[in-house]
Amino acid sequence: MSKIVIIGGGVSGVISAIYAKKNGNDVIILERNNDILKKLLITGSGRCNYFNDDQDVNHYHSDSMDIVKKIITKENINELLKFYDDIGIIPKIKNGYYYPYSNQAINVKDMFNAKLNSIGVKVICNYLVNDINYDGKFIINDEIICDKLIISTGSKAYPKTGSDGMGYKFLKDLGHNITKINPALTGIVSNNKYLKELTGVRCEAKVSLYENNLLLKEDSGELQLTDYGLSGICTFNISYLVNKNDNDKYVLVNFIPFIKTKEEFISYIKEKNNKNKNIYELLEGILNKKVINVILKTSNINYNSKLDELTTKQLDTLSKNVVTYRFDIIGTNSFDKAQVCTGGLILSEINYKNMMSRKINNLYITGELLDVDGDCGGYNLTFAFISGFLAGSDC
Ligand SMILES: Cc1cc2nc3c(=O)[nH]c(=O)nc-3n(C[C@H](O)[C@H](O)[C@H](O)COP(=O)(O)OP(=O)(O)OC[C@H]3O[C@@H](n4cnc5c(N)ncnc54)[C@H](O)[C@@H]3O)c2cc1C
Question: What is the pTM of this model?
Answer without folding.
Answer: 0.96
